[in-house]
Amino acid sequence: MTDTTAPMTEALRPVAKDDRHLSLDVLRGLGVMGILAVNAVAFGLPMPVYMSPELSPFGMAASEGLAWWVVQTFFHYKFVTLFSILFGVSILLVGGERSDKARGALLRRRLGWLLVIGLLHGLLIWYGDILLLYACTGFLALLARSWTPKRLFTVSLTVLLLGSALAVAPLILLESAPADIQKTVMAQMTQPGGAANVTSATAAMRAGLPSAMAENFKAWMVLQPASLIVFVWRTAALMLLGMALFKTGFLTGKAKTSVYLLLIALGGAGLAWTGWENGMKLATDFAKPQALGRYNMAYEFASLPITLGYASLAILLIRSRAIAGLLNPVARLGQMAFTNYLTQSILMTTLFWSGRGLGLFGEFNRVELWGCVIAIWALQLIWSPLWLSRFAMGPMEWVWRRLAYGKGLARGA
Prior knowledge:
- Residues 245-407 form the DUF418 domain.
- This is DUF418 domain-containing protein.
- Keywords: Membrane, Transmembrane, Transmembrane helix.
- The chain crosses the membrane at residues 26-46, 66-93, 113-140, 152-174, 226-246, 258-276, 296-318, 338-355, 367-388.
- The protein has 413 residues and is mainly α.
- It has one domain (21-405).
- It has helices at residues 22-44, 47-51, 62-75, 78-95, 101-125, 131-141, 149-174, 179-189, 195-205, 209-230, 232-247, 257-283, 297-301, 303-319, 321-324, 328-335, 337-352, 366-388, 395-405.
- Helix 1 crosses helix 14 (303-319) and helix 4 (78-95) crosses helix 11 (232-247).
- It is globular, with a radius of gyration of 21 Å.
């Protein structure tokens, strides 16, 4: 969704090919691919199923439960965390120091246009858009781009740890409350309707384009305001963390190998914890409040170490000359991250929406949705290098830059 712009001196200009950081492009490509794996369920099934897996019309036994476990353990929140970190890097690279008024103005224009594109994407294509959140949060994060790495680390990690503690602590305490209090509190937290909402949403998505658009708008009105209120603090903290990691050289492969190996080890431990936790959710049939409290701690506290472990592994692979070349298609996919993110939405909604696509909404289970994910991964890994062999940037990257710079920008320049 974002693109890396190199530091500019005399004139504002897009990044030159030779100025790009391969590691950032690879990580961005992995981020786009991982986000699709998580979003696939929200494309093909009603939002209540995404929020509460036990509401799935296909059940959660056997392969269906395993497919959920794989996504939740290896992908959920890890790749959006990675992408938020990388968005913070882009804010830093585009905007430069706060004293640079010209680049600061360019950054604000880019965020402003991203906000517009996010609104259009969410309202007209898919309600689960993240661009609106990134644009709004970016206007806050840009104020910190001149902070020292120490201050960025301190603020970001404090906010993340405090927020995670506040998210799980009340639910853990709730487990000790009397049963009637637990029932009352959980009833207030649970969306009314349950399975009936799944049935009605599925019917609406199959009833033609006007009905599908109305259902999409309904979901957008539920998700986006809540996202701007609930997730803005976490997203901003991750953006600041991204700035700190870039300033210290971690994201460009300049840290000590021992640092990367340590984070890989911590990430592995986090995956083990997360996998056990998700297994317990399945075993207890997502019993609440346990599923949101004691069995949600790894989601809150291990997702970041896992993400940094993934990044560390990718960076070490990039360092290896024998393996680095194999990552070039991923890097090209990441270089066109904005285009590929929006393309994923277009392809998936064309497959599932009625009125403008095949109308298969609600017909694919989680295992079958994985087939869609892998097919789109393959398509984007092929088409991104082909496009960039002729043009300097992806089509949406060109549009975004054209809008931000306010002047002509040749696609092949």
